[in-house]
Write a structure and sequence with these properties.
This protein is an all-alpha fold. It is built from 10 helices and no strands. The longest helix has 29 residues. The protein is globular and about 55 Å long.
């Protein structure tokens, strides 16, 4: 694409990748709202099952596979930024190649699992393993950034980013390691009634909402110059994120 080539030559690939990172993040925020809205229909299982039949159609299946691209790219590039900022890994060329290569591997694996549709894992074992990995990574990032001069909100953005680097791709993958786990209302409800799964889901909701909200606020701060508009948009983002966090946590607790 000429525009991408122009900026890659004049500003460098890190500049282009930074734009891709923000665009992917905004796409995932929209998906987060859509996903939360869909899950709210679990209070009416027949309605949820009817929605899943529609989402199981071929066009939506392709869209679901395509969703893996911004998910894994945003997660891995976020990890690259953390390594750059806190661990002095400044070889952008090599790091971008790693992000691209691992993204291709994940998206390909995701596609294979979608086609197979016959695998199964224990939800508790799977999420226990992923939660330990995510918390370990988040702790490592926290120990590195906590004593820096950055604001608390900035630090929390990086810490939640490390946590979500494991948990969000794992969540998407889990839906196709257990194909029925997200398609049948009774199966979803039974899984969410487990105490450990509730704890994990609530933690994931809080981390995702904070990380997404801070990311959107950063975009607003960088690209909206008029103060009154910037303040109004910030208030709107906080309000919307709080509503979705409340709805998600309430649903998780009530099931």
């Amino acid at each position: 694409m000429p525009l991408i080539s122009f900026y890659a030559k004049t500003r460098g690939w890190p500049y282009v990748i930074a734009w891709f990172h923000r665009i992917a993040g905004l796409m995932l925020v929209v998906y987060l709202w859509f996903h939360t809205y869909t899950l709210l229909s679990l209070s009416n299982p027949p309605l949820y099952d009817a929605s899943m039949k529609i989402y199981g159609s071929f066009p939506f299946t392709i869209l679901e596979w395509a969703l893996a691209i911004p998910v894994i790219f945003h997660a891995l590039n976020g990890g690259r930024l953390i390594l750059y900022e806190g661990f002095e890994m400044r070889n952008d060329g090599s790091m971008i190649r790693y992000v691209s290569g691992l993204s291709v591997v994940y998206v390909s694996l995701f596609g294979v699992l979608m086609i197979m549709g016959t695998q199964s894992v224990s939800p508790v074992f799977y999420w226990l393993t992923m939660l330990i990995a995510a918390l370990t990574l988040a702790y490592g990032v926290a120990s590195k950034f906590w004593q820096t001069q950055h604001s608390l909100l900035w630090k929390l953005q990086r810490i939640t980013g490390a946590f979500l680097l494991v948990m969000v791709p794992a969540h998407l993958l889990f839906m196709h390691l257990n194909p029925s786990v997200g398609k049948d209302a009774n199966t979803v409800i039974l899984r969410m009634q487990n105490g450990f799964i509730k704890f994990t889901d609530i933690g994931l909701i809080v981390m995702v909402i904070y990380h997404a909200g801070y990311g959107v606020m950063s975009v607003i701060r960088d690209y909206v110059s008029i103060r009154v508009f910037r303040t109004g948009l910030a208030v709107l983002v906080i309000f919307v994120m709080v509503i979705f966090a409340w709805a998600g946590i309430r649903l998780t607790i009530s099931i």
